[in-house]
Design a protein that fits this description.
By secondary structure, this protein is of the alpha+beta class. It has a single domain, classed as Alpha-Beta Complex (Sulfite Oxidase, Chain A, domain 2). 15% of the residues lie in helices and 30% in strands. Strands 1, 4, 5, 8, 9 and 10 form a six-stranded mixed β-sheet that branches. The longest helix is centred in the first third of the chain and has 8 residues. The protein starts with a helix and ends in a 17-residue tail after the last helix. Bound molecules: the ligand Nc1nc2c(c(=O)[nH]1)N[C@H]1C(S)=C(S)[C@@H](COP(=O)(O)O)O[C@H]1N2 and molybdenum atom (MO). The site of molybdenum atom (MO) has 6 residues, from loops.
């Protein structure tokens, strides 16, 4: 069987090389990538909203968020700039537990994630309904580091990692799709790494 050099390195590191999507390479460290600066956050005034096409919009304080049922996932991260990191674990709240609170309307088909400083990213609602999607406040057993999105980030395992907005402040449910920050800069709207959906041009 033919293996690229990147796949061979994955096999040498003891992982199944088919975990590596096309055009990616494995990294052991966790790179930091974002536009702009790391925002200052005061948990006392911080809140998290779920709104739009829902029966029951919510605004949660940090304490209220901690009281929701917590879940853990372990996923592989794939960045459009070609690094992949295997087996990052996250702890946070699954979409299904938020959905129980907000009760999405039948018209809710897309999600626009809103982060600090106007950053946005868009995914179809199905991408959040997958078992391993969540809003996360811990990674690898520790509170998120500020560069990685503390206090809260989105984790959408099925897409390139730019969809996983750091410093998340809200999820807006929509009946239509709206491009997010990187999508407006020419990144692919769907961002499926198995199909190498990197750019839209
Ligand atoms: N708020 C915000 N979230 C963001 C970004 C950003 O610029 N701003 N960049 C995205 C991109 S391009 C990537 S690859 C991942 C990187 O996450 P990491 O720095 O934790 O590796 O965050 C995503 N989330
Ligand atoms: Mo990225």
């Amino acid at each position: 069987m033919f293996r690229s050099r990147a796949e061979q390195k994955v096999a040498d590191a003891g992982y199944d090389p088919t975990r590596l999507p096309p055009g990616q390479y494995l990294t052991e460290k966790w790179p930091v990538l974002h536009a702009g600066g790391v925002p200052d956050t005061d948990l006392a005034t911080w809140d998290f909203k779920v709104f739009g096409e829902v029966e029951n919009p919510i605004v949660l304080t940090w304490e209220q968020l901690q009281e929701l049922p917590a879940s853990e996932i372990t996923i592989d991260i794939h960045c459009v700039t070609r690094w992949s990191r295997f087996d990052t674990s996250f702890r946070g709240v699954h979409w299904r537990d938020l959905a129980e609170l907000v009760k999405p309307k039948p018209s809710a088909r897309f999600v626009l994630a809103h982060a600090e400083q106007g950053f946005t990213s868009n995914v179809p609602l199905e991408a959040l309904e997958q078992k391993r999607a969540m809003i996360a406040y811990e990674a690898d057993g520790e509170p998120l580091e500020s560069e990685h999105g503390w206090p809260l980030r989105l984790v959408v395992p099925s897409r390139y990692f730019w969809k996983s907005a750091k410093w998340l402040r809200g999820l807006e449910l929509l009946n239509h799709d709206e491009p997010g920050f990187w999508e407006r800069y020419g990144y692919h709207n769907d961002a499926d790494y198995w199909k190498e959906e990197r750019y839209s041009f």
